[in-house]
Amino acid sequence: MRETVIFILLTGVITMTRADDCQAVNFGHGSVVCVCNATFCDSVGRIVLPGPGQFLSYVSSKTGSRLVRSQGQFQKNGTGAALRITLNPSQKYQRIKGFGGAMTDAAAMNIQSLSSGAQDQLLRQYFSPDGIEYRFVRVPMASCDFSTRLYTYADTPGDYDLKNFTLAEEDVHMKIPLLQRAQALSAKPLNLFASAWSAPAWLKTNGALTGKGTLKGKPGGREHKTWAQYYIRFLEEYQKYNLSFWGLTSGNEPTAGEMTNYSFQALGFTPETQRDWIALDLGPGLHSSSFSQTRLMILDDNRILLPHWAKVVLSDIQAARYVHGIGFHWYLNKIAPADITLTATHHLYPEYFLFGTEACAGWDPLDRGVRLGSWDRAEDYAHDIIQDLNNYVTGWTDWNLALNQDGGPNWVKNFVDSTIIVDSSKDIFYKQPTFYSMAHFSKFLWEESQRVGVSFSQHTSLEVSAYIRSDASAVLIILNRSDEEVQFEVWDQTLGFLPGSAPPHSILTLLWSRR
Predict the structure, then answer these.
(1) What is the DSSP letter of 287?
(2) 252 and 351 housed in the same domain
(3) What is the pLDDT of residues 180-194, one digit of tens each?
(4) Domain check: are 65 and 124 in the same one?
(5) Are the beta carbons of 357 and 328 closer than 8 angstroms?
(6) What is the pLDDT of residue 262?
(7) Together in a domain, 80 and 108
(8) Positions marked active-site
């Protein structure tokens, strides 16, 4: 048995076991958070596949398990479990690109509010081989709601040639140094992608960064070409700091500035105006620049807009030739079924990848802000990721990498939750249950992992997604949102039967070598 030491921290009780275990604190929101500081943080560590015929299991649960590892043996005969999950590797679907989060101004401020040692610890949790190995980072171009002020990089009226284009102090002193440190920790190059919230006010019809407003003029005109060049100038400036971008989106939530009087930064596009701006301005601009290989994602808005938005943009041959993928957000998903949005879009345009570009808990006005230890939110994450992946999505990006205990800073007080919450007054940070939801995917689903088929011997409440990785190993991710433990067996025709059990309210990742 493990020796257990119990002591008090803040308002909760910590149960500390081995050096690599979660230091758990319960704030009364259904489960626990794991507390980290400059000298200690639980870590999943580096994963080594066991020998032939053996499997690894990692489980996180409402009761407090966090990526708890165990090892088992395949059996030649069935286990007698009523539920058999059969792996069907011959059924091949999309390949995975990866998972990540956003380096907003707020995230950078919160990370930098910690001591140097605690900062390193936090970045290691996300990006190092001992952490959960995020591969993607979304970077806002200039300010968004998770900034402390309104700004763009070209706020000089009439500067159509962008002669005064200048990165902000938030880029130079916060986001860029942290991105460089994250890259240094990562075993592979990070895939950065950028999204802009608003064009400079002088380029817009409403003369403001916020509210309902679009670009002045028409696609092909002076304002639209300047806005396209703004993207290229951003890439050029970041390149000076040895940071290159895997991709861009055509603009954050274009419907926000088109259909509503938004309270924070927005730039309106319809699918028709986005199509024409890409065809006439952004696409040709990127193509003729040194960033022609940068991947362009359209939409970057809620999936309820699919497949219509994709049809409008991608049915135009001039626009479609510059587009690589379709980015979408998770808000309003409850009224936008995945099959009639994501799968329908994939079948119409299979050559364009689908990619989740933003999600966060705590955005709903009925359940607002930070909930330290909320397991319901962890299940919401895992459910949405599995649903997306099972409907042809190639990756999933969380929103802010770190927020404070208020869910900010946010200049418009649009406070939400985050997978890591920082308490700078104590030089600590909390890893939320949602952090571990992300880990069950980002740690195990390598780039180019291919989703494969699964079938079930009977109806089940379990939510399952299966993959074959580049080394021929298999990964099975299982979510149990029910109150009951579910016994099952996995049938792999090359190895036999894997005996398994999904505890109530748990996320389970199984992996094994098929060679």
Answers:
(1) H
(2) yes
(3) 999 999 999 999 999
(4) no
(5) yes
(6) 85
(7) no
(8) 253, 358
